[in-house]
Specification:
about 70 residues; alpha+beta; four-stranded mixed sheet; globular
């Protein structure tokens, strides 16, 4: 899992963004939580890319509900 702190405009606490990658049957599942914006998009992209290169799968599920 990767976690990264970012700036939160005016708030006392920084926002957090995390990506977790798991494999379910023959699918890579990427779960993102926190504020996904341009600043953190590269983290999601890199994690999915690394997972795909490590274990090519029949499917990719990206869960942005968190």
């Amino acid at each position: 899992m990767i976690e990264e702190n970012g700036e939160n405009n005016g708030s006392a606490e920084p926002e957090r963004f995390a990506v977790s990658i798991t494999v379910h049957e023959n699918a890579i599942v990427a779960r993102a939580s926190g504020e996904l914006d341009y600043q953190f998009a590269h983290l999601l992209h890199q994690q999915v890319k690394d997972a795909w290169q490590t274990r090519p799968s029949a499917a990719l599920v990206v869960d942005l509900s968190g």
